[in-house]
């Protein structure tokens, strides 16, 4: 384990990936890069939109220049400054515009995770929201060519969101919280 992975925010994110995302197979494409060490963790101490934006640009720059065989996907973890889900959504829109301005549309995709993630039209206590809830606000950079290749090999990828919602609703809020706390087997 690298020194960066002993940072509490990164360690907690890794635990969430193992226990929740991979453990429940919410993203059937996450296990291979995770186990191969091809997930990059970038940390933003945040505090202001300017700092988070600069940290995103730095993480984006490093990720674009990296060998895709070594760095398949990247997570920018925000320690502070985006606690409000609305502020997070505003930043997400700004970062999506940065990807467009950099000419990376069709090259990289930006996925979003937040501790208070709330899908439009879904109640705050619906377990379905946990498909995009994470220990910290984070932005997930995904290489589109790698994702496209994985989707071609996966049967019925369109069913993934529905299956995840059913799985999480079946667990219920108490089951999800127990799993995240490490109190329940997968």
Count the E strands.
4
Helix content: 40-55%
The termini sit apart by 24 Å
Structural class: alpha+beta
How many helical elements? 6
Structurally, the number of domains stands at 1
Arithmetic mean of pLDDT = 92
Tell me the major beta sheet.
4 strands, mixed
Can you offer a commentary on this structure?
The chain has 186 residues and is an alpha+beta fold. The protein has one domain (3-181). Helix content is 46%, strand content 13%. The protein has helices at 8-22, 31-35, 49-65, 85-101, 144-153, 160-181; strands at residues 39-44, 73-78, 108-113, 138-143. It is globular. The two termini are 24 Å apart. The model has no long low-confidence stretch (mean pLDDT 92).
Kindly list the characteristics that best describe this protein.
186 residues, alpha+beta, 4-stranded mixed sheet, 6 helices, 4 strands, globular
Give the SSE layout.
Elements (H helix, E strand, L loop, with lengths): L7 H15 L8 H5 L3 E6 L4 H17 L7 E6 L6 H17 L6 E6 L24 E6 H10 L6 H22 L5
Parallel strand pairs: 1-2
Antiparallel strand pairs: 2-4, 3-4
Helix pairs in contact: 3-4
């Amino acid at each position: 384990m690298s020194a960066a992975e002993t940072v509490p925010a990164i360690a907690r994110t890794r635990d969430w990936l193992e226990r929740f995302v991979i453990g429940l197979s919410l993203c059937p494409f996450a296990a291979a890069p995770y186990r191969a060490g091809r997930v990059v963790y970038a940390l933003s101490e945040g505090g202001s939109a300017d700092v988070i934006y600069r940290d995103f640009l730095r993480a984006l720059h490093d990720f674009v220049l990296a060998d895709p065989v070594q760095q398949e996907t990247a997570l920018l973890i925000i320690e502070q400054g985006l606690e409000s889900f609305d502020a997070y959504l505003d930043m997400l829109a700004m970062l999506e515009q940065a990807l467009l301005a950099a000419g990376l549309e069709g090259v990289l995709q930006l996925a979003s995770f937040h501790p208070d993630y709330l899908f439009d039209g879904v109640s705050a206590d619906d377990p379905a929201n946990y498909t995009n809830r994470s220990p910290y606000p984070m932005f997930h950079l995904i290489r589109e060519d790698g994702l496209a290749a994985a989707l071609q090999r996966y049967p019925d990828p369109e069913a993934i969101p529905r299956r995840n919602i059913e799985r999480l609703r079946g667990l219920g809020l108490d089951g999800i919280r127990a799993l995240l706390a490490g109190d329940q087997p997968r």
